[in-house]
């Protein structure tokens, strides 16, 4: 279900902005999941992570 939400938000960025502004919400996810999805879709950064080193793992 989250995969479909992300796909929808990718195709409808205005909805991401509505959710971010509190004018809409994502049904079926927790508030933490919603915040994470919206922050990720809008290119935002989670509060408190400004000075955290970012590490990406790649497994082949």
Automatic annotation (TrEMBL):
GO process terms (BP): defense response to bacterium; defense response to fungus; establishment of competence for transformation
Keywords (A to Z) from UniProt: Competence, Lipoprotein, Pheromone, Prenylation, Secreted
Protein name (database record): ComX pheromone
Domain Barwin: 47-60
Subunit (UniProt): Interacts directly with the sensor histidine kinase ComP and stimulates its activity.
Family matches, as PROSITE patterns: BARWIN_3
Major localization class: secreted
GO molecular function terms attached to this record: pheromone activity
Compartments it resides in: Secreted
GO cellular component, one term: extracellular region
Pfam family membership, one: ComX
Record InterPro entries: Barwin_dom, Competence_ComX_Bacillus
